[in-house]
Amino acid sequence: MKIALGADHAGFSLKEFLRRELEAAGHEVADFGAHSADSTDYPDYAHQVATAVAEGRCERGVLVCFTGEGMSISANRHRGVRAALAYNADVAELARRHNNANVLALGAKYLSPAQAWEWVKIFLETPFDGGRHERRVKKMEPGEQSSQ
Fold it and tell me: Is 133 annotated in the active site?
């Protein structure tokens, strides 16, 4: 699978760990940076990863910043991107099963590298359940009308 990967300075170390693990697992990684721990702005990386996923150049994306919030918010500004902020393994799985999330956001402050890798593997290996969830996912897109 081709994975878009991005992080700001606060997520740099964890991103580097995840890049190595993804490559060792046989994934192709498009690393959009940051490429050092020097101070940067998280939206710059979120937009690059989200664009790569939205345009189909990458199948999934993984974003890391201090809390994961800024990355998630920024990525979700892109049509066709469903970025999920995971705070445990169950959320990483359900974001795929129920929401067909295609970008995973992680907060480097709140998890260990081992936890992050576990959640990324779950996110990549879990299929979308479809069915009743497909209707709901379609309603997430801008311009779609919800019915009561």
Answer: no
